[in-house]
């Protein structure tokens, strides 16, 4: 049973289910591991969990003249994480990247790339550069 949290009478928000809270915390942890991994590889993190009306980008990073939109996927096994980046999600990330560029005009002339970082327990993250592109 979901318990309401504080809010105006009659419009109390519904508290997330415990499994959703756990998934959210695991996602944050995976994104932190991915960000640290990218920093160690020489990337500068520009934004994390950037939201737009059309979608969210887990990490926006920069390395030299390349702006990188990074999707982070966490699963028990790295191969399972790789299979979790589906076409529909790629389209949503591309749409969010277009929203980023519209709101950050200085980045329009940057080289753009879409990467994926796979995260699993007891494994180093796996960075897949140019995992997909906007031309499909």
Describe this structure in words.
This protein is α+β, with helices and mostly antiparallel strands and 136 residues long. It has one domain: Trna Endonuclease, Chain: A, domain 1 (3-Layer(aba) Sandwich), CATH 3.40.1350. Helix content is 34%, strand content 32%. It has helices at 18-40, 78-83, 87-103, and strands at 44-52, 55-63, 66-74, 111-119, 126-132. Strands 1-2-3-4-5 form a 5-stranded mixed sheet. The chain starts with 17 loop residues before the first helix and ends with a strand. The model has no long low-confidence stretch (mean pLDDT 85).
Topology, pairings included?
Elements (H helix, E strand, L loop, with lengths): L17 H23 L3 E9 L2 E9 L2 E9 L3 H6 L3 H17 L7 E9 L6 E7 L4
Principal-axes geometry comes out as globular
What's the number of extended β-strand segments? 5
CATH fold naming = Trna Endonuclease, Chain: A, domain 1
The helical percent reads: 25-40%
Round the mean pLDDT to the nearest integer and report it: 85
Low-confidence blocks of residues: none
Bin the strand percentage.
25-35%
Major sheet strand order:
1-2-3-4-5
- Report how far apart the termini are: 43 Å
What is the number of domains? 1
The name of the CATH architecture is 3-Layer(aba) Sandwich
Largest sheet: 5 strands, mixed
Overall CATH class: Alpha Beta
Gyration radius, in Å:
17 Å
Tally of helical runs: 3
Helix vs. strand class: alpha+beta
List the secondary-structure elements in sequence, H or E: HEEEHHEE
Q: What multimeric state do the chains show?
A: single chain
